[in-house]
Design brief:
alpha+beta, 35% strand, 3 helices, single chain, 7 strands
């Protein structure tokens, strides 16, 4: 039985769509940033201590990329985050006094995407903010 080219294209598109939907349902970090932030905050609620946060990160098999004795500069409007010590062009709001960058994971959809959580802590080492950042390699 021969499949017409138009039928083959429809089958391919439906298969691709179903795989994207399945990925969205199975891989929490493939969802939009606000949903990923909610997912992280569900695992590590506001006011969680630094040590408890590290323990949860380990149990989730996420990876701490870096830790800093400075807060985060978050520019919500420009969707940009820096560690405060970098003193770059980011004039965002200063959040926290210590911070860490955590790699939550990576996936392909269709490009390689790595998802990071920038986590800020207050002067009592309690979690105060989570900011989600994606690095997409479309090369």
């Amino acid at each position: 039985m021969k499949v017409k080219p138009s039928k083959a294209i429809i089958i391919i598109l439906v298969t691709l769509l179903l795989s994207l939907i399945l990925q969205y349902l199975i891989i929490p970090i493939s969802r939009p940033d606000n949903a990923v932030r909610s997912y992280v905050l569900h695992k590590i609620p506001i006011n969680t201590s630094w040590d408890e946060t590290v323990s949860i990160i380990d149990s989730e098999r996420w990876k701490i990329v870096s830790t800093h004795d400075s807060g985060l500069r978050i520019n919500y409007q420009a969707r940009h985050v820096d560690f405060d010590f970098q003193h770059g062009a980011n004039k965002g709001e200063l959040v926290g006094v210590t911070s860490m960058e955590v790699k939550l994971g990576e996936f392909y959809s269709p490009f390689h995407t790595a998802v990071f959580a920038y986590i800020a802590f207050d002067e009592n080492d309690k979690l105060t903010e989570v900011y989600i950042h994606r690095e997409i390699d479309a090369t």
